[in-house]
Amino acid sequence: MNILICDDSAIARKMLSKHIMLTSEVTLHYAEDGAQGLAILKEHSIDVLFLDLTMPVLDGFEVLEQFPTNSKSTQIIVISGDIQKKAKQRCYELGAHEFLEKPFRPEEITKLLYRYRISPSSKVAIHNHNRSLSISEVIANIREISNVALGTSAALISEQFDRFIDMPLPNVASLHHSELQMTLQDIVNNSEYRAISQRFVGNGINGEALVCLHGNELPELLSVDNGEEQITTNEAILDISNLLVSSFLSSFNKQLDINISLRQPIVLETEQLKVALKHTPSLIKEYESDIFTIEFVYSAETIDLKCDVIFLMDNDSLTAIKSILESVL
């Protein structure tokens, strides 16, 4: 049996492959993006494909759309953090046979493997708690956790606006404080941008979420006719921002089994930002060295609206996350 695991996350590929018993009759193939996946599908007779949706080069939807004619007998199992109803429906319409949500439970994958006559491994339960992780491993784990959290968040936003949300790939990296200052300057320079800041804290993690909303349809989305436009517009902006941040953090918390609490969001008015940039704003002053960031951009089909989201944390927070990961992995 030829099995292909197509997922850009090395952690996800490893986690899934650990559930499969390797025998002389089973050959595992791996692809890090949709383009590699299609190449393998053309070269080999793949019996079962495990397919992620959010990948670089070509995503899972594009793989399904460009599926090779010689692979029509391949059983396609989508395993993704993109859990939007519209995403699932699109997968089935494009030929997927199963859809399993990330993060999956061991018993879920075991039942699924039995359905497709794949022998599950008996060694999955072995864990190595308190193993020291390298920084690259910490970043990789945070990226995968963020992918799942983005899927949960996108599903809520999709229901809110009744639109399919294009799942972004999170950028997890260090950001120099001067780059953050440039980001704030961009907001000042673009009068149509609306920015919101929201603090979060818990389990040794301390940071701030910066949300920037922009797009030609933003004014229409926020328009009101009750004579209190500024107040109501700010309330709508705060509601959207809070939904983006809280839904992401809720999944982040659940996956790490921790509790990070959110403060009230505030709208960063342009005039306030102009003054703040001249006097070293607290948003920048707190991060005198490089800033650990999780950054992504939400966009929706059929609506010109983008939501840029950056989670900013100091190095102590990264150390705290590293410690949490080492205790749960």
- How would you classify the helix and strand content by structural class? alpha/beta
Distance N to C terminus: 30 Å
- What's the pLDDT, averaged over the residues? 85
List the uncertain runs: 224-231
Radius of gyration: 22 Å
Please provide the ordered H/E string of secondary-structure elements: EHEHEHEHEHHEEHEEHHEEHHEEH
How many DSSP H or I helices?
12
What proportion strand?
A: 15-25%
Largest sheet: 8 strands, antiparallel
How would you describe the shape? globular
How many runs of DSSP E, i.e. beta strands?
Answer: 13
SSE map:
Blueprint: E1 2-6, H1 10-17, E2 27-31, H2 34-43, E3 48-51, H3 60-65, E4 75-80, H4 85-93, E5 98-101, H5 106-115, H6 135-161, E6 165-166, E7 171-175, H7 177-189, E8 194-202, E9 205-214, H8 218-222, H9 229-256, E10 261-262, E11 266-268, H10 270-278, H11 282-285, E12 291-300, E13 303-313, H12 315-328
Parallel strand pairs: 1-2, 1-3, 3-4, 4-5
Antiparallel strand pairs: 6-12, 7-12, 8-9, 8-10, 8-11, 9-13, 12-13
